[in-house]
Each structure stands twice: as structure tokens, then as C-alpha cells.
Design brief:
This protein has 266 residues and is mostly helical. It has 10 helices and no strands. α3 (79-104) runs antiparallel to α9 (242-256).
Length: 266
Amino acid sequence: FRLRGAPILAGLVAIAAVGNTATSLLGAVTRLPRIMLRMASDGHLPASFATVNSLTRAPASALTGCLVVSMLLAAVVSFEALVQMASVGGLIGFSLVNISVLLCRCRPLPAELADGIELNTKAGDVGGIPVPCVLGAPESGNSGSTGLPSPATIAPEGQAGWQEPTSGVVRLAGLLFLYFLSSFGLSVALVYGFSFVWKTSLLLLTVILGCVAARYYLKEKRCIEDDSVEAQYVFLTPALPLLPLVAIVVNNAIVANLPVAALLRF
């Protein structure tokens, strides 16, 4: 805008960029503790991160850890590098979310839903997020200070959580991972001016992997009835599987346009 003789617009765009970056970073710091809480409750992180403050119902340990790491990074890393790292991490995270949407529609039902267990938004309510509990279970089914229902409350012993994925779902996961890599390679080839042969080969590979992954999805997906218990449990996504596949390509294209140093730092 300054080169075009519009310094006022340039200033407004700069202010908007700073505000948007600050909002995105604050949003990341706010939601990351909840993600850590869920991962800790599933056993993927230390159990201390699953504790919830009895007064505020906030994940105190996870929130404290995130704030300490954020302050250390802000003190030793430049603002521009932080913005670029946050952009790379966010875009890769969005791609993984799109992959997860397709996989979650194909995985076998959780045992509690397969057994006809309904949602109870009172028992096991964590931060306003309903957790599936046995219909009619007492509200005192929370385990310790985590604010999460015990596994025995959710499903019979040995059946809690998602069931093992089928071989078709495993193949779909592998295809989506290859699709992610090929679309990223295609974006890099377009941005950095690779030869026509490379661009064409990567384009064909991406299209073929996308078509095969879509076929596997349509073969393995579950049909969710509007009046079923599962319809109350899952979220809806339009234009499956096309929208997630296109979103992965778009995210990779944006990542490829970022500086190489940002990818290396991430």
C-alpha cells in the first residue's frame, strides 16, 4: 500500500495484522490446556495435567505449563519467528483435523455408543463439554479431581473407548498421510519453480491418492441415523470427503509459501 501511495491503508493493515496475530496466539494458549487435559485423561500425557481446579473448573496444571513455556519462548525468540512458527503449527494442525474427520467417520463406534448408552450432560461435564455416561448413572461418577467420569462409568470393563480400527481404516490413514505428503510436495514444487515433469508427476500423484482415499472413505464410512444416539455425539461436516481433502491442499499451499526458516524452526 505504501508503494501505491496509500500509507494510511498500510497502517490500518499493519494494525489489523498485529491484532489478528495476538488473537490467534491467545486463542492457542486458551485451547491448548484443554487439549492437554483430554490427552492426559486418555493416558497420553502425565496424569498431573488432567487435574481440574475445583473452584474455576479450569485445567490448572496444563494452563500453568502452557503459560510458562509461552513466556519463555516470548523472552528468547523474536516476534516474527513466533508468528511464523504459530502459522506453521496451526496450518499443520488444521490438516491433521481434516484427516481425523475422515478417520473418525470410519472407525468402529465407541463401546458406550455401540451398547446404546446415551449422553448425560450433567454427569462428567468438563468445562461445558458433555461426556458420554451410562444412562441413569449417578452424577457422583467423577474420578478424583480430574472432573472426568471413571472408565467403569462410561463402559463395561475392557470395552471403554474406541474399538480397534478395521484394516480398511488403517489403509485409509496411510493413504491420507501419503496424500498429505504429496500435496505438500506439489505446493513446494509450484512455489519454488520445479521442472514441469516434477509438477506434473506430483499433481497426478496427489489426484490419484485423493481419489483412492475418497473411495476408501466411501467404502468404510458409517451411516449415522438422525435419530440415533451417535447423532447426538458426533459433529457434522459438509461435503465429505471432498471438503477435507481440498482443505489439506490449501493448508499445504499456505505452508509452502512461508519462509523455509519457519519450517526448520517448527
